[in-house]
Structures
1.
Amino acid sequence: MKIQRKHNKTQAEAKERLIALADTLGMSLQWIDEQSATGSMTYNGVTVSGSAMVTSDVIILDVSLPRLARMFESRIQKQVEKEMDKAL
């Protein structure tokens, strides 16, 4: 599942807000470089992993959903987008 959200912050501020959102959700992020991270979280016994990229104008999440969660992909995507919009 790929999610892309525009932001009107500096790249550093957008990264800080993404880190704060990840912390709120219980997700751990490991930064590969200044703009790319990988991470995972467990929710109700289901582990979700993925990557994030923060550019000067957009945040891109690429999330791997387990097979059982894929039937709820559109609902999950809408909720993640809503949370990202609030954070940004």
2.
Amino acid sequence: MRRLAKGVVSWGLAVALILVISITSAFSQDLRKGHLIGYVFDRDGSTPVQGAVIVVKNLTTGAVTEAAASDDLGLFKVPGLDPGLYALGVKSATGNFNSQEFFGVAAQQTSKISIALNPYDPVAASAAEEVIKEQREKGEAYIGKVVNYDPSTKTATVFVEIGLVQKEDRIHVKGQVTDFYQDLGKLMAYGAKADRVTSGYTASVTTSKTCAEGDFVYVVCRGGIPPFFLVPLGAAAIVAGAVPLAAEFKEEPVSKHTIK
């Protein structure tokens, strides 16, 4: 009986030890996680969008996570994310929206963002599809050429031949001598600020380096990550929120396109 009792006690201790280890391990894993919470609004930045599904992708691991649909206040939550930098997209009842912005998640912290959904007009939607298709194939999409460059103001006038260029884009300017990358941040068209310029029109951009007439201009996938959706209804812009991790990009490889 004593041996049996000792056996039962030993078995009980072993089970208890396993449970303690499992709980400790689960707790440790949870401590390494971060969370995302935010709101989805219409293009006005104040009207809540109900039923939107936020899709996020970890740029390091490639893991994709979908949130539950946003509520009547536009509120959404994405718990239990690994620390890192994330890309996002939004699914809604009217269509899908791509974002060119990244946000960071840190362990034991909650990142908070607000998103505004900006639908394209039919021309811009078609142009965006052209750009995204080529980006998925080549990592960057040819959109036009520099038709004039003013060295005194470092302003390049770009004629958009295919697709579109947007103020949030990262571009690659390449010519016989020119070869550099740049985040736009600002876009002008015919003397006025513009969110995007589509094919058949000219865009003016201030360049970080000297370029020349005839240089090719490409729109690059930020961080090498193509947009979520091939046929987007519009753009999802992060209009507010803390970003705990900064996006740092290494110089992209030289374009495979050759200049004849």
3.
Amino acid sequence: MVGTAVAYWAVATASRHLPAVTTSLGLLATPVVSAITATLWLGEPLTLQLVVAIVLVLGGVAIGVTDRVGADRGRLDSLCAWPHSPAMADYHATADTPAPSKAELLRALRSSRDEVVALISSLPQARLEEGRYESGWNGRQILAHIASIEWSYPRLIDIARTPPSEEAAPPTRTMKGGNDSYNDRQVAKREHLTVAELLAEFDQNRAATIQAVEAADEALFARRIRSAGGVVGPLALVFHQIAVAHVLGHARDIAGDTTDHG
């Protein structure tokens, strides 16, 4: 009775944190766990046929999980396949770029956050002082840009809430003094912060971004907007390009090379 209760609790807990496909694939390994447990605890013989069966089951589970991860990664990469440097003004939504659903956007926001933190945390301090990227910044200044601009992404949702006008142009908002001037000011304000402090700011602001997306109505993400940087398209696509692809592009640049990108 206790064993059954624990098993159901484990499945329910996993289902809250993992996709249904992943949980289902994990359940396929139940006979393997049973066979191994019987061998270790009850002294049941481990025959050649049983070993072959275990290998086949685990192989099938591995293939299923790998295919699932590959499909998700391919989906993310297809959405990220857009130019991300040197200037945000060059970014634009294209007709053949698929717009993510709200759920897909949330997954991408979380996974890109984790990737940025992992990439930057793995780099030596000296690496972040090298390179010349957008606006002539080095790696640490690019991180300051990523951390500082993150707070503004929920404003994209406010743009989508703007009542449509009679003009053909989609609703938008602009930064005071222009994007470049605003970004320079924000980076300069963070000149004294350490890499750990910048990552903490990014993580805190990304949590607020995720919370804002979670609270927004699904219908908003289909509304056409124009970001302050000139990205035009449905809110979901503009949000993904700026908050996911743009940010990942910078982080991967820093981790991948130190050449001049400006």
4.
Amino acid sequence: MDKLHTGKTKTNEVKTEVSEMKATKHGRRFMRRRSWKDMSPVQKVGNVLIGAVELVLVTLALWDISHRPDNEINGKKRTWVMASLIQPVGPIIYFIFGRKKAAAPAAA
């Protein structure tokens, strides 16, 4: 029984060494991409929330671009549609720079 356990441990050690060797590229270590089942429940919820926020931002930006007249957008609509698809900063950049500022109401 002890030999079997020792054999499994050595096999696991070899697998670990091989995975560590694979995790090195050009002498530098990089993080292995984590799968969904490797994540804790908090990390899973965080990823789902971030994805939902990105989806809402893209949807709002595309809706705004399609419903806003050309003269109220800085540049071409096609350019802002493409920029809005760049995650995660595209929609935010559109909302900051893509829409023209509303004219101040005239003082009475």
